[in-house]
Amino acid sequence: MAPTGTRILCLVWHLVGAIAVQPVVGPTKTYKNKNNCLRGKKLFSSFLSSMFFDIFDATILIDSEVRWRDDYDYLKGRGYTLRTRYHPNWEPSWVTDTSKVEEECEDSYHIPTHQVLDATRTDGSIVVLKRVDTKQPQNDLPILQYLCSQEFTSNPRNHCVPIIEVLEPREGSSIAYVVMPLLYDPDHPDFETIGEALSFWKQMIEVWVSTLLVILQLSVSKGLHYMHEKLITHGDCKFGNFMADTQHLFDSPPHPSRLRMRRDFSGPSKQLASRTLKPVKYYLIDFGLSKAKQPEDAPFLRQAPWGGDKSIPEFLDLPYDDAPFCDPFAVDVYCLGNYLRQTFLDGYDGLGQYRTGHPKGFEFLRELITDMVNEIPSKRPRMFEVSSRFDAILAKQGSLKLRSPIVSTDAHYEFSDWVSHWSTQLIRIARRIPAIPRP
Which pLDDT tens digit goes with each residue over 328-359? Predict the structure, then answer.
């Protein structure tokens, strides 16, 4: 095993390389500028590769990978085969066959996160395994099992990531494996229209209205929001915890670490259909910081801070030894609003810096989002209010608005792009295909 310093540098290189080659956060289509952007990223990645060549050694498994390798046979015996890289007798393919180029070999890529790894099931389907240490107080297994109970899964509005199976800890171990569907970032592939993006907004708002803020049935405006017996806050609504089931849009599942390639690296992963024609369901994941409340627990306060969003107003300038208690529901509203603001309104690069360009066409939602991120928690709308206002705003949008392309403020959109886009939309209008897809 490599020395600790080398392993740390490998991790740093992996992180920087991932930032350099992965798409930036957001649904923006950049068209002509996009190719230049990708070309620049490849050059930057090559530059970094040359700088760190002696440091980064893909032939070495880092500590988090060794754990997966050690459980390879156990998981295979339970019906789940990990990538070749984690086979106990793995030898780098580019080493055993010198005609291969390291960067073009699937087994040269580390896992994106140490707790999660994709696997092939005995039926041929691709799933994700999540390592959960049941001894850790913040493990999300109990609440995941609760949210995947019949009470929740029977509700079509439930958008909590489903559990396929749980492999309970073996004797003498505290590690369980949660088997879930293979999901991708919401913006892969790109949203084509404003209506497709609004489908994502609507489903994410539904998470709280129908699943995470629930205690009884509440009548609002045009119908009923189904509310359950528990009040649950997510606690970590940020980029990376919103995912999409988009496998059916591609000819082959994209590789989790290299989205532009097929999982087996047999070639590029090609998009075959749009979200409008084959609607996508979106999910909320990572419930390690979630809290379930009972009605008698009111007023449901929680001591700050928590979660990955560091911009939450009530978490700023906290006293070191006497942090205040906050309303976790108001925090969830802020975090969802902040994520949508960064992703669809103002632009965000995932590193805390706002981009120069951002998607155009979503300003009609500015007032709602501004209220959701109000610095004063008590002035933020509750999630059922957010849902009601969102639906009212949506009802005012015409078909042409909803079918408009998503274009960045710093992108160049050619006349031929407009012709191609609207030719497709006119056909969909004639076929009466809804502008806002619904799974």
Answer: 888 888 888 888 888 888 876 444 444 556 78
Question: Which uninterrupted H or E stretch holds 195?
Answer: helix 194-206
Residue type for position 187: D
This prediction has a pTM of: 0.76
What are the structure tokens assigned to 150, written together?
Answer: 């019949």
By DSSP bridging, strand 223-225 and strand 242-245 are unpaired
CA distances from 40 to 23, 35, 36, 258, 349 (A): 12, 9, 6, 17, 16
Tens digit of each residue's pLDDT (9 = 90 or more) over 163-196: 888 999 898 899 999 999 999 998 899 999 999 9
| Coil vs helix vs strand at 342 | helix
The angle, 0 to 180 degrees and rounded to 10, between the axes of the packed helices 194-206 and 328-340 is 170
Name residues whose C-beta falls within 8 Å of residue 355's C-beta, 6 or more positions apart in sequence: 24, 26, 347, 348, 349
Task: Determine contact, residues 341/213, Cβ cutoff 8 Å.
Answer: no
Give the integer Cα–Cα distance in Å for 313 and 376. Answer: 8
Ranking 39-53, 320-334, 373-387, 413-427 by mean pLDDT, the lowest is 39-53
Token pair recorded at residue 161: 């990531």
417: amino acid identity, one letter: D
DSSP state of 71: T
Count CB neighbours of 109 within 10 A: 21
Q: Is 390 helix (H, G, I), strand (E, B) or coil?
A: helix
| Cβ neighbours, 10 Å, residue 377 | 16
Exposed/middle/buried for residue 327 (C-beta within 10 Å: 0-12, 13-18, 19+): middle
Alpha helices per DSSP H over 22-89: 32-51, 63-70, 72-77
What is the rounded average pLDDT for all residues in the chain?
Answer: 76
Residues recorded for the chain: 439
Phi, psi for 217 (deg, rounded to 5): -85, 135
